[in-house]
Each structure stands twice: as C-alpha cells, then as structure tokens.
Amino acid sequence: MSAFHFPALYIPHGGGPCFFMEPFPGYPPTLWDNMAAFLRGIPDAVGERPQAVLVISGHWECSVPTVLSADNHTLLYDYYGFPEHTYQLTYPAHGSARVAARALELLRAAGMPAAEEHGRGLDHGVFVPFKLIYPEADMPIVQLSLLHHLDAARHLAIGRALAPLRDEGVLIVGSGNSYHNLSEFFSPSPDAGALSAQFDEWLGHAVQAPRAERERLLTQWHDAPGARAAHPRAEHLLPLMVAAGAAGDDAGRITYREQMFGKMFSGYQFG
Which end of the chain has fewer CB atoms within 10 angstroms, the N or the C? Predict the structure, then answer.
C-alpha cells in the first residue's frame, strides 16, 4: 500500500510520432510544442514518482479487458506515411508482473471476464507520449485494452474496478485525444471548429462535475453538442471513461487546453 493517493489522468497523445519529427510542410515548426511541454510536465504535476503506470490507449481493443503482461516491451509502429526515422524510435520500457496480476485480480473480482496478453507491443498511444513523460524508459508500464463495443458505461466500470491501484503506487493514465475526427482534422471549416469547441466546453463541464453527475454525463457523451463531429468513433475518448471511473469521488480538472487546426484539444486530471 502506497502512502500517496495517485491521480488518474487523461492525456492527448497527438498524431502518430508527431513530437519526434518536423511538422508537415505548411504548418508552423512549433505546432506540437505546447502539447509536448504538457506531457513533459506530467511527473511534476503528479507530485510523486509512481511504482508503475497502467495505460489505456485508444489503439487497442479486445472482446474483454486484456492486460499486457510483458517483462520487456516491444513497440508497434501503428502509424502510416511518416518519415522513415520515426519507425526506428525506441522505448525499452519494462512491464510489471505485479501490477498486471493485480489489475486482472481487480477486474475479475468486479465480475468482469479479463484476459492476459504477452506478445503484443506497446502502440504509439503509449510509447510516443511516454517518451516525453518518462524519457529514460525507466518506468514500468502495463497496458490495458479497450473493449470492442466501445460502451462508455462499461469503461467507467472498468475504471471503478481498477481504482484501488491508485493507492498501491500505480498511476492510471488514459491516452487518447479529446478531438478525433480524422476526416475533419486538417479542415479549415469554421463549422467543424465550432462543433469542436461546443464539445470541448461540454466535456470540460462533465469532467468537473461531482461524481454522480460526471458519470451520468459521460455515459451519455454521444448526446452532447458536437459529440459525433468530434468523435465519429469513440475509441480515443473512452480512455477518459476509464480514468473517470477510477477517480471515485475525486474532483476532475482541466490541465491542458489548446486549439490546433481550429479544433480544441484538452487533458484532464482527477485527484
């Protein structure tokens, strides 16, 4: 048992290997600098070094919650059309058998079937932001999958089941993007920007609401203004549901907010 009550986070992980390359022609060289600075500042914002991190990325879905139990992680370069050197990035993080086993125990104790995976690598929703958060790759990382059906209530329940980890030295991090509509991502359309702003305002309100109201709103996220314009598919939003479920009664707050490509991107911390 840790004496420190770790927060639960929802962070943006940008686009592909964006922090480790020059922006594409036509975009300013500082395009990703603010997001990168936010990610680098997370250890100080957390306040204490965890024993391990449990990460839920928007890039892994399974039929049941699945825990990546690898002693030594490989990487999945699951992005396309980027410079060759970005497929040579390294991040030799270790896993944590203790945290993986404890996560499985907690999920099953909550009545959820759960599985274990050994061979999959860390996807870019994990290794890209964590190369900035813990650049020495000296923090044990355990990845947890989303569920294929992308049901918000089920992901909140997963978070609630995993909440005890926060008092056991584990930092829970949901990694996604609060805006993720690839067909409109680079569009200068003012309508797309307005819808993004509407959803971002709603989401910030939901995150900062008291627990019961927060969970009610997040369960019904798809009814929010601009919701489907921001997330035609929910996989990059649902890591937030896991973090919010793990939050318990802890208050949520906005820790990062920025407009990029005319769209709003935010990050949140609970506790």
Answer: N
